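Appendix B, Record 12. Input sequence as logged:
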Amino acid sequence: MLEFLGLGTTIIGFIVIVFGLGGLRVVQQYQRGVVLTLGRYTSTREPGLTWIFQGIQRMIKVDMRINTADIPRQEAITKDNVPVGINAVVYYKVEKAEDAILKVENYPYAVQQYALAALRDIVGGVELDTLLTERDRLATEIKKMVDVETEPWGVDVTAIKMQDIELPAGMKRAMAAQAESEREKRAIIIKAEGEVKAAENLTQAARMLSAVPGGLSMRTLETIDRLQADPSKTVIFALPVEIMEGFKSIIESRKS
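Logged structural output:
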C-alpha cells in the first residue's frame, strides 16, 4: 500500500512539474503578451519570464516594433482625369497591445487596407501637377487620415511614403516636350538679356570714347590692327576723315 501511495505521489509530482514547466512563457523585450483567461482579457504581460495556466489561459504575443506594410501598385485618377499608378509604404507600430488584439481582427491587414483607401481619396482630390510636386505634403495628409482610424485600435502610423508614380506613356511624352520648350524659352531669354547687357556696355563705351578728342578714331585704328595679324597680307579700308584726324592726333602726341 505504501509503495502504491509513493508511486502515485511520484506520478502526481511529475505531472505537476511538467504542467508547471509547460506554462512558462518568455516575452521578448520588443513584445507584449496579451493573456486571455477562458476567452476573457485579464492582463498584458511585460517582457521577461512569465507563467500562464495551461488549458485555461492563452497568451498572444504582440510585436511592438515599427512594422511596414506595402501598398501594392494602385490605379487612381487625379482631379484633372489623369490615370496614374502609385505604390506606397506604411510605417506603423502598436501602442496598446490589448487594443490591437481585441478591437480589430487583423491589424496589419486593416492598416494596409485603410491606407490604400486613403491614398485613393487623396489622389482623386488633387491635380497631377500637385501630385508630382507636393508628394510629401500629400503623404502627410494620408497619414493623418489613417491615424484617426487606427488610434482606437492601439496602432500608431508613424509615416507613409509614396514611392513610384507611374504616368501614361502619352503623358510622359507631353511632359518631356513641355520641359524641352521651357528649357529653350529660358535659353532665349538668357541670350536676349546678355545681348541687352552687351549693348548697354557698348553704348557706355561709345559715350566715353566720344568724350575724348580722337578717342573713336584711335579705337578704330586699334580694331583695324587686330583684324589682320599676318604681315604678308594687306587689307585696304576706305577710311573716313575722322580716322585721318586720329592719325594726326597720334603723330602729334608722339612728337610731344
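The chain has three domains: 2-62, 67-171, 205-256.
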